[in-house]
Design a protein that fits this description.
Blueprint: H1 14-22, H2 33-40, H3 45-72, H4 76-90, H5 98-108, H6 113-117, H7 124-139, H8 142-148, H9 152-169, H10 179-185, H11 188-202, H12 206-234
Helix pairs in contact: 3-4, 3-5, 3-7, 3-8, 3-12, 5-10, 7-8, 7-12, 8-11, 8-12, 9-10, 9-11
Amino acid sequence: MPSAVALSPDALTPDEFTARLRALAPRYWDRHPFHLRLHEGRLTAHELRLWAANRWYYQRAIPRKDAAILSNCPDVDVRRAWRERIVWHDGDRPGEGGAEDWLRLAEAVGLSREEVLDERHVLPGTRFAVDAYVTFARTRPWVEAVASGLTEMFSRDLMARRLADMRLHYPWIAEEGFAYFTARLGVVADEGKSTVDIVVRHCRTRGQQEAAVAALAFKCDVLRGLLDAVDYHCAGGSS
């Protein structure tokens, strides 16, 4: 790995910078009212299906977001590490990968594969938020796009709790429907640490650090915007 460029005089120390990033945890979507109802077992089957279909639109965008980062990143070491994320989601062949596992969840809650893939249930708010995220990754400096993915720092505990709560409160969901969560739990902690390392190593000025914090805040808003759209629809709002 190439040696890091020295920090500029006004830059935060690595520990201070990391603390600024972690301080955004309250903006993560784990505290969104829709997620709270999901974990409490208060969603109807229809609401679970709407959530799964809209979350699919986000899942299918992740490899395109990661490909945009690769196309903008001049650092070969980062590219080597980052391309594994695309493989994880897309798989090496048809029928494999995280996206396929999410489709299995959608089927387990009662959706057909066809209605998920044709996106008939995707709400305008979901589409707007997710498309904005892909555009951000394509048009902003690559390290800001990487920083936007630091929601991984907050996701492992939420994912473990979701798996336990969904098994408890929605026993009608077949176990194979949880393949996405069980597989993701095995990689998200390591991915989160490697992402922090990349961002800290490459943000050497205060301006770069502030841009990275803003990028993570933006990603939190994207995720909450997706749930806002689903929650509003479930409450009877027009789409």
